[in-house]
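Collaborator request log, item 7. Partner lab (contact: R.S.) asked for a structural prediction of RNA pseudouridine synthase D3 to inform their binding assays.
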Amino acid sequence: MKGRPLGPEAVLGLLEASVVHREGALLALSKPADLPVLGRPGELSLTALLPALRRRLGLPAELHVVKAPARECSGLVLLSACPRVTEQLQRSFTAARRRAQFPATYSAVTVGIPAEAEGEISVGLCWQQKGDAAAVVAVPSPGRRSVARGEVKCTLTRYRLLGAAGGCALLQLQPRTAFPEQLQVHLTLLLCPALGDHRHASRVGTVLGEPFLLPPQETPTPCTQVLDAELMSRLQLSPHHRLPLHLHLQQLVLPHTVLSAPPPPHFLRTLRLLGLPSPPLPPH
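Returned to partner:
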């Protein structure tokens, strides 16, 4: 079960304390998991807190989000107080991906260990309606027309195993493309869903201890990720505890600097309890 949500003042305090870079029009901080960038009406969000954060930090101009991880993820948020700088940085990220570079590096704790110590996941992704909700699903061999029409996007993530213990792993992930929930789906295709992924982890089943991938149509409705009793015990969790997603945007490579942010407390606690190493900063 999740704890009581933090109020605006408490979240503002967290954001202010998590500033990792401040130079000219640029500000970088580390966002906690489960804080949306753009929230639903009446919901606490990063964007809604930016005016108050600007006042707290004594910044003269309005802040804009340049790059940020999804709601469920923790990690680096890049903010700018200058529209021209915002546009230049967004163009630089697009150009880097076109040059086959990987400007963003994530760390993830997974339930399961990939068969290969490093590699790439390359697959088409699309939105698919499932009942009243839409879900992101893999399209292993997308047709040229569906890609050209924008119905399917070809996605690529590079991964590397940093450590393994107790059936879990610490992975470094570098996406070259951007699609909602891309990393969670790619980890599921590796049969190693992220710890705390309550949306896609149910696609990985087991038979006689061996993991396999369930077809999307046979996947149960998203629910709390099911962990075995031994892992629950190692993580010191009660049966109804709902873990946050262990997916952290750790590093961003900018044209003239490299930004990094350490994982949040829940992530570090999991690494300690599982006996996994702390994620090193990748070379750039």
